[in-house]
């Protein structure tokens, strides 16, 4: 099965310069230099960027605010309950939470990239639009501020963190001790879900990253820049996990995403990535 995985060299060669602003000019053919197929001047990218509304901005600000308050409250509870004897539990459960977050980042990313369209009510303009924009203008994310980058991911964590906090407040001590591994798992899962798009943004950032971020990328603790380029090869059909990226190669080896797409197409008749391809065709 491993032979079916795209070789790293093959993908990297194809993906080079997809989002590297320094490298772009050297690979464009002469005629393409006047009609770039990606970037801020792409007609589709401009149209998508203009769909970012005031209402969406308000939703993101509220999500970030509520989520941070819940994070702080849960963090205090974790500190209150953690002991030397349950430190290993915290680390193992936390690691499982991080791996789960990586998988969920891939699943959500795959769903948003592959199915649905920007024309769908509510979710189209608000939640699918950034995924379409990102493929035809991969550098746009580097121009988004903290709220625009992270608002949706922080929103997803609100029910998880509220559930976690309610348990800390309402459960008796004995029950909390028993469920401590689950609580550590959920806490780290929520943290890494919240940080996913920030980590993704760093993987597209070539200048001015703090040294500790570059170190975490180089050690592959978080998504490295070269690793994420594999996803940015048209038709953007692999390497969907964008939190740590640890699951990308194993999932590629077992053809996980194509298998899921075959099932969805068999059940619904929909073809994958049609809306994505339509936006990519809108030339500048
Ligand atoms: Zn994508
Ligand atoms: Zn990306």
Automatic annotation (TrEMBL):
GO cellular-component term (any): membrane
Annotated InterPro entries: Lipid_desat (IPR019547), Plasmalogen_desaturase (IPR052601)
Annotated region described as Disordered, given as residue ranges: 1-26
Membrane protein topology class: Multi-pass membrane protein
Keyword set, alphabetical order: Membrane, Transmembrane, Transmembrane helix
Pfam families tied to this protein: Lipid_desat
Compartments in which it is found: Membrane
Transmembrane regions: 62-82, 89-112, 153-170, 182-200
Signal peptide annotation: none
All copies of domain Lipid desaturase, residue ranges: 98-275
Family note: Belongs to the fatty acid desaturase CarF family.
Name this polypeptide is given: Lipid desaturase domain-containing protein
């Amino acid at each position: 099965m491993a032979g079916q995985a795209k070789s790293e060299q093959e993908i990297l060669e194809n993906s080079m310069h997809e989002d590297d602003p320094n490298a772009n000019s050297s690979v464009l053919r002469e005629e393409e230099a006047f009609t770039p197929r990606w970037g801020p001047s792409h007609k589709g990218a401009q149209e998508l960027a203009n769909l970012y509304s005031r209402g969406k901005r308000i939703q993101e600000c509220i999500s970030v605010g509520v989520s941070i308050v819940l994070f702080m409250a849960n963090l205090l509870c974790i500190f209150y309950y953690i002991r030397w004897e349950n430190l290993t539990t915290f680390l193992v459960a936390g690691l499982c939470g991080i791996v789960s977050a990586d998988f969920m980042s891939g699943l959500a990313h795959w769903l948003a990239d592959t199915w649905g369209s920007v024309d769908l009510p509510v979710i189209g303009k608000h939640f699918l639009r950034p995924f379409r924009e990102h493929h035809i203008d991969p550098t746009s994310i580097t121009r988004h501020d903290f709220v625009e980058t992270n608002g949706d991911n922080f929103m997803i964590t609100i029910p998880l963190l509220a559930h976690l906090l309610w348990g800390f407040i309402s459960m008796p001590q004995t029950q909390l001790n028993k469920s401590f591994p689950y609580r550590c798992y959920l806490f780290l899962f929520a943290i890494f879900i919240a940080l996913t798009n920030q980590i993704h943004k760093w993987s597209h950032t070539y200048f001015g990253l703090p040294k500790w971020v570059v170190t975490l990328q180089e050690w592959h603790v978080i998504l490295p820049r070269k690793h994420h380029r594999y996803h940015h090869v048209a038709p953007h059909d692999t390497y969907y996990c964008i939190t740590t990226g640890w699951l990308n190669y194993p999932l590629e080896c077992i053809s996980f995403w194509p298998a899921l797409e075959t099932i969805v197409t068999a059940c619904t008749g929909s073809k994958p990535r049609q809306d994505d391809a339509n936006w990519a065709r809108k030339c500048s």
